[in-house]
Amino acid sequence: MALRIINTSTELSGYTQRTILDGREYLLRFLWNMREAKWYLSIADQTGSPIVDGIKVVADFPLTRRIVDERCFPGSLIAMDTSEKGLDPGLTELGDRVVLVYDSVTEV
């Protein structure tokens, strides 16, 4: 198992970042839903073509386990609660108390 922490912003409530996973570039879009007080993640390929939209970011759960699109990375993204309490990230906690971790299958 090869774990890699994906850097995320603790200051913005909505943003897109380019991230390389297993040698390919992806666009990860993070949006804070104020009404639900939850983060949502969308993933697109390097051209911006959507792979999946609106995954609710929950702690300690493989966020991408149900994605079957062959354009998606082979590993898994997990929002890991470093406090070990299993709490979902608040507005300023994604990238702080809760870190986004990529579990690569290429080195397993």
* Distance between the first and last residues' Cα: 5 Å
Mean pLDDT: 94
Give me the secondary-structure category.
mainly beta
Give the oligomer, counting copies of the same chain as homo and different chains as hetero.
single chain
User: What's the story with the biggest beta sheet?
Assistant: 4 strands, antiparallel
Report what the structure shows:
This protein is mainly beta and 108 residues long. The protein has strands at 2-6, 14-21, 24-33, 38-45, 50-56, 76-81, 98-104. It has one domain (2-104). The mean pLDDT is 94. A hairpin with a 4-residue loop joins strand 3 (24-33) and strand 4. The radius of gyration is 13 Å and the shape is globular.
How are the SSEs ordered, and which strands pair?
Blueprint: E1 2-6, E2 14-21, E3 24-33, E4 38-45, E5 50-56, E6 76-81, E7 98-104
Antiparallel strand pairs: 1-7, 2-3, 3-4, 4-5, 6-7
